[in-house]
Amino acid sequence: MDPKCQCLQLSDGHFIPVLGLGTYAPEEVPKSEALEATKYAIEIGFRHIDCAYLYQNEEQVGQAIRSKIADGTVRREDIFYTSKLWSTCLRPELVRPTLEKSLKNLQLDYVDLYIIHFPVAMKEDLGMIALEDNSQYNDF
């Protein structure tokens, strides 16, 4: 895969690879799989890595990115890293601390794109995923 030919230019002049590795996996998949899959994806040419705090594998994904930087496969600026803000953290005062927690888990200095994971706000006291009924949604 040639990443230079498979990017779109954003309005700010930066480029985003059109093909990315999604790192979500169900709970029964060992977290070590995220490490190995991410390293392999970078080795074969993926430059866009999509992860989220919700996936609970940021440490492994960050470790994979850092190891491919350390072995000279890529530079940090070659990787377009996307992370996501979960629905229980949409209040303005929670956005920055949530991003900082992701950066700490990743052991990276920045993310390239930070988006809202799911466009519905949920109360923070209901845990990460509380989708059993509609009572968890905040009033708009």
From TrEMBL:
GO terms for molecular function: oxidoreductase activity. The keyword NADP applies. InterPro entries: AKR (IPR020471), Aldo/ket_reductase_CS (IPR018170), NAD(P)_OxRdtase_dom_sf (IPR036812), NADP_OxRdtase_dom (IPR023210). Residues 19-122 form the NADP-dependent oxidoreductase domain. The keyword Ligase does not apply. Keywords: NADP, Oxidoreductase. It comes from the Eukaryota. It holds the Pfam family Aldo_ket_red. Belongs to the aldo/keto reductase family. This is Aldo-keto reductase family 1 member C2. The gene is AKR1C2.
